[in-house]
Amino acid sequence: ATMPPLLSAIANAGRHGVLVKSAVVMEQLGQVDAVALDKTGTLTEGTPRVTEVRPLAGAGLDAAALLRLAAAAEHASEHPLARAIVDAARARGLDIPAAGDFASTPGVGVTATVEGRTVTVGSPGRMLDAAGSRRATVVAAGLEDEGRTAVVVLVDGTTAGVLGIADRLRDEAAATVTALAELTGTGPLLVTGDNARAAARLATEVGISDIRAGLLPQDKVAAVQELAEAGRKVLVVGDGVNDAPALAAAHTGIAMGRAGSDLALETADAVVVRDELGTIPTVVRLSRAARRLVI
Ligand code: ADP
Ligand code: MG
User: Fold this and answer.
1) Is 275 a catalytic residue?
2) How far apart are CA 51 and CA 164, in angstroms?
């Protein structure tokens, strides 16, 4: 028997490295007319590196001690920033002590007990207001102006330091943004939990003009719902636990597979397995071609 068009499109998508979970999804992909893209791990490669370690006077820690405590707190997190911090500590030959009472807040950061101290690592925007450290705010803003993601480390409530983390833009990011804009008739929206400075810098590089930064997971959902209420069928592309609610709220959700969190992969309607962003416009085109044969 000849394969029904949507099934052969699924097989074809698979050959391009995209796992489309059902024929319904394969059909829906061609209907999308708006796209919301996550930044870290989606437009960027998702293998960030720690580029700066800046201890602050007051907590009495040097760079190695700061990184060691941050890595211990991050050890149980699957966030790309967490992996960057743990890798940086290992690369410097630091022992990473065991941590207890681990808790993570998507879009904010992590906290854990390390050697009897409470260590918190996360977003300057979310943590520094409470901690009220002007010095840390200035250091973080300086790093963000250079396009870094800054994370602040608090030890027993004192700002102990700031880490600068850099991630590479995917080679195919700009071309994918252009292709998606052509397919949907409108430029993609950038939705990120990261800071506005780093987001604006990256958006300029890839050709995105519509940016929402500093978003919590539920804010990403609200951005998707706003478009849906305006009658749009929104494609969301993301990789993190923080993207899962937006992937669920989307008309169609696609997760980046390689560095993606389990929750994102399970929630999404399709998964980019081969880690090439350029396959997303390809599967939209495959869907449209199959729909022409079905209808
Ligand atoms: P994005 O939307 O760009 O993928 P996230 O929502 O995952 O980013 O994270 C937003 C911000 O929250 C990060 O830039 C960082 O400041 C903070 N953050 C989230 N998770 C962690 C973590 N495990 N360690 C440190 N900071 C974190
Ligand atoms: Mg992400």
Assistant:
1) no
2) 5
